[in-house]
């Protein structure tokens, strides 16, 4: 009887977990639907803006190349419009809570693999990412920020961007939504400044800059990263919600299998108990029959 009570207690507990996974899955689906349209439309827009930014850099590099060939400036180094510290930083966008499936851990793997290849600095966003980082690189310094898994904290986001724009090169690692069933670890890199070289190819697209290419690039250098980083935060949220839906669906299927197993075990136990009672009831008849 004690074993039967244990089975019944586990059935209650596992059934509670099933309710929990369904609730988590429904919340994730609702949040994913709310932000998916915006993220996907903004993804296309920012891709176009980034393309213009790259073309502008190419045009400016060509202008510097012409100045080098005419002896106006010396070759080597970079031209930038903001003060930078000459360092490279790798930024991990993770999560504050669990139950986001594989996307957070897979993104961390990509981040830590690249981080170990070079002597660069680390910035971690999210408690899960910080825990993973401390497990593997406890002695390495890092900068930590806490952004919500859902919603928007403009104050903290501004602090993150202010911290990152001081670096010469910024590499951001985050999960990217491909479809409801596919989310992939992704990285983008943005570097400050334009190399000074005498050997530069002609730009693929010719632009007329108004007022000047320098002022256009100054605007881009101060604004493009903020826009791209904001998008990567939203991309990460979308990927995490899609990943959670899959994780909760798999968990629900495993729970169903466990419940079936427990129900079968309970039924077998009931049959064994009934058989035992029947044997006990037949025992006196057999005894007196002798």
Automatic annotation (TrEMBL):
Gene Ontology annotations for the cellular component aspect, listed alphabetically: proton-transporting ATP synthase complex
Keywords (A to Z) from UniProt: ATP synthesis, CF(1), Hydrogen ion transport, Ion transport, Membrane, Transport
InterPro entries in UniProt: ATP_synth_F1_ATPase_gsu (IPR035968), ATP_synth_F1_gsu (IPR000131)
Main location: membrane
Any Pfam family: ATP-synt
Record membrane topology: Peripheral membrane protein
Keyword presence, Acetylation: no
GO molecular function, one term: proton-transporting ATP synthase activity, rotational mechanism
Subcellular location: Membrane
Keyword Ion transport assigned: yes
Membership in a protein family: Belongs to the ATPase gamma chain family.
Function statement: Produces ATP from ADP in the presence of a proton gradient across the membrane. The gamma chain is believed to be important in regulating ATPase activity and the flow of protons through the CF(0) complex.
Name of the featured protein: ATP synthase gamma chain
Organism for this UniProt entry: Candidatus Woesebacteria bacterium GW2011_GWA1_39_12
């Amino acid at each position: 009887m004690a074993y039967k009570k244990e089975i019944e207690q586990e059935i209650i507990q596992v059934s509670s977990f099933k309710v929990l996974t369904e609730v988590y899955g429904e919340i994730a689906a609702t949040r994913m639907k709310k932000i998916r349209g915006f993220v996907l439309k903004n993804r296309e827009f920012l891709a176009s803006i980034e393309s213009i930014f790259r073309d502008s850099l190419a045009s400016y590099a060509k202008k510097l190349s012409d100045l080098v060939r005419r002896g106006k400036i010396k070759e080597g180094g970079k031209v930038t419009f903001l003060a930078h510290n000459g360092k490279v930083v790798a930024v991990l966008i993770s999560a504050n809570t669990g139950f986001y499936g594989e996307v957070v851990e897979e993104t961390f793997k990509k981040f830590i693999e690249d981080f170990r290849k070079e002597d660069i600095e680390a910035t971690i966003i999210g408690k899960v990412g910080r825990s993973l980082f401390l497990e593997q690189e406890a002695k390495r310094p890092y900068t930590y920020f806490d952004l919500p898994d859902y919603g928007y904290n403009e104050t903290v986001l501004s602090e993150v961007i202010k911290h990152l724009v001081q670096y010469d090169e910024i590499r951001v690692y985050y999960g990217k939504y491909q479809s409801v069933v596919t989310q992939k670890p992704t990285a983008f890199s943005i570097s400050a400044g334009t190399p000074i070289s005498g050997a530069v190819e002609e730009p693929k697209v010719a632009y007329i800059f108004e007022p000047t290419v320098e002022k256009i690039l100054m605007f881009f250098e101060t604004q493009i990263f903020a826009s791209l980083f904001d998008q990567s935060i939203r991309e990460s949220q979308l990927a995490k919600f899609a990943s959670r839906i899959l994780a909760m669906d798999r968990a629900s299927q495993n729970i169903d299998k466990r419940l079936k197993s427990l129900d079968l075990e309970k039924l077998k136990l009931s049959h064994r108990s009934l058989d035992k009672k029947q044997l006990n009831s037949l025992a006196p008849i057999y005894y007196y029959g002798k």
